[in-house]
Specification:
This protein is of the alpha+beta class and 660 residues long. It folds into five domains: 38 residues, no CATH class; 181 residues, Heat Shock Protein 90 (2-Layer Sandwich); 160 residues, OB fold (Dihydrolipoamide Acetyltransferase, E2P), CATH 2.40.50.180; 127 residues, CheA-289, Domain 4 (OB fold (Dihydrolipoamide Acetyltransferase, E2P)); 127 residues, Response regulator (Rossmann fold, 3-Layer(aba) Sandwich). It contains 20 helices and 35 strands. The strands form seven sheets. Strands 10-14-15-13-12-11 form a six-stranded mixed sheet. A hairpin with a 2-residue loop joins β23 and β24.
Length: 660
């Protein structure tokens, strides 16, 4: 802090004689801080060392089969914090074993695996350590908790009626609360979860609880690195300064009256159109109630922040420097405000609050502070993005004046090659490109190359294959709604769509790839190792003919036999017919039966019950991922992330065959 104060004094004075010694002092303090932090940090596995034995003893004592899985044991945290969470962790694991997991006979009856599972998972997220303790047991008994809450005088029956299950579950953290039928050495003494919460909050942490009847419970402990020094971005809002941890900041966007990025309103909630997506915005002024009205400003700044897979923007008035700050825990009087993760003293001696992006994201989704709320915005964004199916397209001209387009995601690079470097082999034009020969293909079969100068080429690349599609000129990259108005029977053309207000021919890139390499769509025997190799069969379910036309050649490139249908009902008809597949790829947003409902229907029947399923969606939030996992999808991929789709498909098929 003293170093920061000195740096602030000489900032802006170019000729200061203190500049050089201060720079040296800065290096020394940084080295010293790193050294001290390393000695203080210990892997969380040290706190877990005794847990396997405790679980073994409990499984013998209670005659249950328990499998304890520990993930992220190497995650480091401060030694002092480690000591303080040992006991809460032990208590919660014992709770999962005693209350959570059902006896073996009961598990057999309801069709669960005999062995109950307790999973401990630790990881870093946004300057915090998250520890999850989850089990696949019976979940919390809502009725029993209600009954005990009334018995203990914590709430009346009418008050309980007005509460959500999530709010009722919180009663287990009250002092003297226990749902155990009888007092044993493990539980029933009414000393437990209240002590756990108190100990965790003592070090500035929080504990969250999620439970699903019959599926299990999970406790999420979030502990700030209270003694850590973090790099933070200093921002200003309504003349107040705040720090945002740099680890959560993706980028800064400056918005002025005439800038290309503009703030729009959807359902009374602000959003920003940033490149290829709509970004929900949070006004820090309104969230923290710093000003009554939003006065008009010449410019605003938006700090684009990511929490898990949820990306949103925080609207602030000004942005200052990045500074290294010492994190002090939040005072108890402010601990209920989830938007703050701590405070710090700046170089000029002023105390400022550190914003917690996780808390801000939670507040936007759960409170009414933002009027319509960001959840509505999210839903609106999802509806709009699906209704419009916005796609980034590369618009070009080739073989005539009419406009042509191809999805930008399929094009590896845009190149301009010197026509003097074009060679011919077997009468086919090609060019040496990045150490390989790249065949050049014309759109209409007639290669009209320029006499001299440079020729624009769209480069398509997959593994060792690279092809150049020769074009006359690259017109633009646009983002527009993809709606093929007129379908075409011509090979190489998907159809015609209105792009940026002009009729544009959408080309089928998959048609041109085999012209460069005959085996591009086929399999490579060397790769698969033997001639008896069976092409994996993939079922593609998507109501959009465009995506089916686009993904079919992509999947064929990777060596899959693709069967595509335009709805979940047709896919289920194939099951009734007795068709077998190695994997199923399904869109989520479909008319009639949605992808989630389709996955539930597939998993409910033994015939396709074990086939790996991959979900495709243009709107992928953490809630969607979670729901997708629950209904039976093995993975969840954003549309147009072709590399992720191919990798996921290969790994899930390999895993399922390995398991089989």
């Amino acid at each position: 802090m003293t170093r920061n104060q000195l740096l602030q004094m000489v900032r802006g004075k170019d000729d200061s004689e203190f500049a050089t010694p201060l720079q040296r002092l800065s290096h020394i303090t940084t080295d010293l801080q790193e050294g001290v932090m390393k000695t203080r940090m210990q892997p969380i596995g040290n706190a877990w060392a005794k847990l396997p034995r405790i679980v073994r003893d409990l499984s013998v004592e209670m005659n249950k089969k328990i499998d304890l899985q520990m993930l992220g044991a190497e995650t480091e945290l401060d030694r002092q914090v480690l000591e303080l969470i040992k006991d809460p962790l032990t208590h919660m694991v014992r709770n999962s074993a005693d209350h959570g997991l059902e006896p073996t006979d009961e598990r057999k009856k309801i069709g669960k695996p005999e062995i109950g599972k307790i999973v401990l998972n630790a990881f870093h997220e946004g300057g915090h350590i998250i520890i999850e303790i989850s089990d696949d047991g019976r979940g919390l008994n809502l009725e029993r908790i209600k009954q005990k809450a009334v018995q203990n005088g914590l709430a009346s029956e009418s008050e309980l009626e007005a509460l959500t299950p999530q709010q009722i579950y919180q009663f287990i953290f009250k002092a003297g609360f226990s749902t155990a039928e009888k007092v044993t050495s493990v539980s029933g003494r009414g000393v437990g979860m209240d002590v756990v919460r108190t100990n965790i909050e003592k070090i500035g942490g929080t504990v969250e609880l999620k439970s699903q009847p019959g599926k299990g419970s999970s406790f999420i402990i979030k502990i700030p690195l209270t003694l850590a020094i973090v790099s933070a971005l200093i921002v200003e809002c309504a003349v107040e300064r705040f720090a945002i941890p740099q680890i959560s900041v993706l980028e800064l966007v400056r918005v002025t009256a005439n800038s290309e990025h503009g703030i729009e309103m959807i359902n009374n909630a602000p959003v920003l159109r940033l490149r290829d997506r709509l970004l929900p915005l949070v006004s820090l002024k309104r969230l923290l109630k710093l000003a009554d009205g939003e006065e008009e400003q010449q410019e605003t700044f938006i700090v684009v922040t990511q929490v898990g897979t949820y990306t949103f923007g925080i609207i602030v008035d000004r942005v200052f420097d990045t500074e290294e700050i010492v994190v002090k825990p939040v005072a108890p009087i402010l601990r209920h405000i989830t938007m703050f993760s701590g405070n710090t003293i700046l170089g000029d001696g002023s105390v400022i609050m550190i914003l917690d992006p996780n808390g801000i994201a939670g507040a936007t989704g759960e409170s009414g502070m933002l009027g319509a709320g960001t959840r509505d915005t999210d839903a609106q964004v999802a509806r709009e993005s699906h209704a419009e199916s916005k796609t980034s397209l590369l618009v070009f001209r080739a073989g005539g004046e009419d406009l042509k387009a191809v999805p930008l995601a399929l094009v590896a690079r845009l190149e301009e090659i010197d026509v003097a470097e074009i060679e011919h082999s077997h009468g086919k034009p090609m060019v040496q490109y990045r150490g390989h020969l790249m065949p050049l293909i014309a759109i209409d079969g007639v290669l009209n190359l320029r006499d001299e100068g440079r020729q624009p080429v769209l480069v398509f690349s997959d593994k060792e294959h690279t092809m150049g599609l020769v074009v006359d000129e690259i017109v633009d990259i646009v983002e527009d709604r993809m709606k093929v108005e007129l379908s075409a029977n011509n090979p190489g053309i998907i159809g015609t769509a209105v792009i940026a207000g002009k009729a544009t021919t959408i080309i089928d890139a998959g048609y041109y790839l085999p012209q460069a390499f005959g085996d591009w769509f086929g399999r490579n025997d060397k790769e698969f190792g033997n001639a008896d190799f069976q092409q994996p069969r993939v079922l593609l379910v998507d109501d959009s003919p465009f995506f089916r036309n686009l993904l079919t050649p992509l999947l064929s490139v990777a060596g899959y036999e693709v069967i595509s249908v335009d709805g979940a009902d047709k896919a289920l008809a194939l099951r009734e017919r007795g068709d077998e597949f190695d994997a199923i790829i399904s869109d989520i947003e479909m008319p009639g039966m949605s992808g989630f409902e389709f996955a539930s229907a597939v998993r409910a029947d033994g015939r396709w019950g074990t086939i790996p399923m991959v979900a495709l969606s243009s709107h992928a939030t953490e809630k969607d991922f979670e729901r997708g996992r629950q209904v039976g999808f093995n993975d969840y991929i954003a549309k147009f992330d072709r590399d992720a789709l191919l990798q996921t498909l290969a790994s899930t098929i390999a895993a399922s065959k390995g398991a089989a």
